[in-house]
Design goal:
Elements (H helix, E strand, L loop, with lengths): L1 H19 L4 H16 L8 E3 L2 H9 L8 H21 L11 H18 L1 H5 L8 H10 L6 H17 L7 H18 L29 H25 L10 H17 L6 E3 H9 L6 H22 L3 H15 L2 H10 L1 H16 L2 H22 L2 E7 L5 E4 L10 E7 L4 H10 L11 E6 L6 H17 L3 E6 L2 H9 L11 E3 L6 H17 L20
Parallel strand pairs: 5-6, 6-7, 7-8
Antiparallel strand pairs: 1-2, 3-4, 3-5
Helix pairs in contact: 1-2, 1-9, 1-12, 1-13, 1-14, 2-11, 2-13, 3-10, 4-10, 4-11, 5-14, 5-16, 5-17, 8-9, 8-14, 9-14, 10-11, 10-17, 15-16, 16-17, 18-19
Length: 556
Amino acid sequence: MSGLVLGVESVPDGLASGLLAGVNPVAGLYAYMFGVAGAALFTSTAFMAVQGTGAMAIIIADVDLASRDDPIRALYTLSILTGVAMILAGLLRLGSFLRFVSNSVMTGFISAVGINIVLGQLDDFTGYASSGANRVARAVDLVLHVWEVDVATTAVGAATIALIVVLQRTVLGALGLVVAVFAGSALAALLAAFDRETALVADIATVPSGLPAPTLPVIADVPALIVPAVSLAFVGLIQGAGVSAGFPNEDGSETNESQDFVAQGAGNLASGLFQGMPVGGSMSASSLMVTAGARTRQAAFFSAAVMAIVVIVFGGVIERIAMPSLAGLLIVVGVGTVRPHRIMSVARTGPVPLTAMTITFVLTLLIPLQYSVLVGVGISVILFVVQQSSRLVTKQVVFHHDGRIEEIDPPAEVPPGSVTVLHPYGALFFATASKLHEQMPAVTPESRHAVVILRVRGADDAGATLLDMLGTYATSLRDVGSKLVIVTDNTRVIRQLRVTGAGRPIGDHNIYRSTRFIGEATRRAYADASAWVHERNTPDSDAQPGDDPETGDPEP
């Protein structure tokens, strides 16, 4: 029953997906049929339905397939390339890298995709052929020529939307989509009897009476399609990860994002080989399959079989589906994609997430989606760096005689004849080096015979920028007869200090390796530093600024 519901619903949905992608709607139908069956063989998430998605269809529409020598086979080549990219991502276990894509960027991207879906269907919905450089410009052109819309076409689209909204709330549920599309097409047939023609699927495509034969990719098109294939893979994997998280296996077995990457890749290979467009993990199809009562992954195979039967037996009926009805279906999907509560949640988070969401939203509306996806990834990385650098906080650690340890704000300047222990909280890397330097006490001519102990914990790699900063700070301390001491738990950082030469102003004896006992190395460094300060501040000490902090001898 679950396969029957999903299979029947997927027929108009697949046609609409192909329409949204700007390709032969039958390619969307084949993508749904072979994509869901090919992926179901490998998914770790039993209820993951791999079909076309709105975001992926919009990206396909922005790829200039018409410029290729064979646009139809270029589409199949794009599907296969997308599958290869997904399989490689799965084999390389890149699922963990999805966490670097921030929620604010994805909210902006998905919201803009929803708007793009709506704007992209206005021509078929109204019967007016608008013009413009992008969907926004074409929508503006439509508004400026609103009197040129076709009333009959618009009536069919509007009736379909109204029926979808009403019927989905009845016992029909998801099948209400199918009923609404066929009811809208019946209205179009009725209007045609009164000489008010509307566009049909048959006007742009012929539904074959059998299943497609395998088709090989066009190798010459591969270089031009690599970037859109990577973008499609990225969007599909993001959406697939949402399916993995949202639909756990009933038997309690764990899902594996990387395994699901491979499965989505297999679905794309099957789709491309059998004349379909790129596909990915579909949240709506997976939800429909589970709601209809799916218990095992066999539901996906039943849905593919149902679609095959519909294509073979009822191909002529599919050709009579009205284009404005499919446009109305997609407009409902597009509106549902925009989640105002998520947008408001990001907006209330702070100016940085709001800025990232807004930039991604605007770019996704104005530039081709295969590039806006990559820009969104770049924005996510920049946002991550900005957030990490802004979270760095440095505290001074004070050891009391009764054994208590107190954390206070560090002094503005290094006090003379003192030991200052500093502990930075946050990630230490190139972007936080300047922030750390700003938070450390400034070295002045009065900062004589003092020691600054810096605890560097949790840093896997110091990096050249941080090492240079530590070397410069150590040199400024040495110039006034003071020194810097490093306490770290990472042998890699110690090696970098020694190999790069950044540790020369510090001295090997002033680099302490942490032990498994918390605070042990810091206390030892503090005791040694206190003895050093005491020796330098005794009345008979003749140490001078610029002397070697270890020996007290003048530097050469």
